[in-house]
């Protein structure tokens, strides 16, 4: 997945897309351990999952999608994350 997927880089995270043959899509979220505190890491994951759910129509239907959050990512507002998710996906998230 990481070696074969198409990468799109944003300020907060890298989006990795890889095509699937079976027609279903999966979401993965990778938050670096350098982001201290499990509460903070879990909040970032919740915000990204919710943003993905709201913008699901932007992403391809038959792809594995991984959000790799950058280690220097600080917890912004959910609105910022939602806008960043949509912006990165609109730049061509086709695998």
What keyword list fits this structure?
2 helices; Ribosomal Protein S5, domain 2; alpha+beta; 95 residues; globular; 4-stranded mixed β-sheet; 4 strands
Protein architecture, described:
- By secondary structure, the protein is of the alpha+beta class.
- It has one domain: Ribosomal Protein S5, domain 2, CATH 3.30.230.10.
- The protein has helices at 38-54, 78-90, and strands spanning 6-9, 13-19, 26-31, 63-69.
- Strands 1-2-4-3 form a four-stranded mixed beta sheet, with helices on one face.
- Helix 1 packs across helix 2.
- The mean pLDDT is 80.
- Secondary-structure element order, as H and E? EEEHEH
CATH topology: Ribosomal Protein S5, domain 2
Average residue-wise pLDDT: 80
First-residue to last-residue Cα separation: 11 Å
The proportion of residues in beta strands is 25-35%
In the sheet with the most strands, the strands line up as 1-2-4-3
Helix content: 25-40%
Question: Structural class, please?
Answer: alpha+beta
Largest sheet: 4 strands, mixed
Low-confidence stretches: none
Given the structure, what is the number of helices?
Answer: 2
Number of strand elements? 4
**Net shape:** globular
CATH hierarchy, class: Alpha Beta
Q: What is the domain tally? A: 1
User: What is the CATH architecture term?
Assistant: 2-Layer Sandwich
Topology:
Blueprint: E1 6-9, E2 13-19, E3 26-31, H1 38-54, E4 63-69, H2 78-90
Parallel strand pairs: 3-4
Antiparallel strand pairs: 1-2, 2-4
Helix pairs in contact: 1-2
